[in-house]
Design brief:
With 147 residues, the protein is mainly alpha-helical. 67% of the residues lie in helices and 0% in strands. Helix 1 crosses helix 3 and helix 1 packs antiparallel against helix 5.
Length: 147
């Protein structure tokens, strides 16, 4: 694996994550509850300090880094074992992350209930849509490395 390929995968993850973040804010236009994922990540990771709430950009940088790491995981460890073309593989991987997020991250770490039940009764639909957006973009842009 070359450095150029690693950079390609990381950039694909960041672009997919950007679409994920924008989708979470724009989903309100579909009548679903919006998800401000950057603010949630900043609040979860940094919390309030003496100077007030954490920087919005801190959450955005962290979630983009997270997207790049998941893209590397997809390209090297999970993607080669998923069926179908790239976009389908990306969607399947995104569904797995959606399930892990809804079953573990949301109730245990951020205390928002299973599949964001404490946020809004339809927040799980918003989360599903934005994860699928992430997976589609990732599967489209990110190569899968077969060993």
């Amino acid at each position: 694996m070359t450095l150029g390929l690693l950079i390609h995968i990381a950039i694909a993850g960041v672009i997919a994550t950007y679409c994920h973040l924008i989708g979470g804010l724009w989903i309100k236009s579909l009548g679903l509850p919006p998800l401000d994922l950057s603010r949630a990540m900043a609040d979860y990771t940094y919390g309030d300090s003496f100077s007030g709430p954490p920087s919005y950009w801190a959450g955005q940088v962290l979630i983009c880094f997270n997207g790049a790491v998941f893209a590397l995981f997809y390209a090297t460890a999970v993607g080669p074992f998923l069926p179908g073309p790239g976009v389908i593989r990306g969607m399947i991987f995104a569904m797995l992350l959606f399930l892990l997020s809804g079953l573990l991250f949301s109730p245990i770490f951020i205390d928002k209930g299973l599949f964001l039940a404490k946020v809004h009764e339809r927040a799980w639909i918003s989360a599903l849509v934005v994860h699928l957006v992430w997976g589609i973009v990732l599967g489209w842009l990110c190569p899968v490395i077969t060993w």
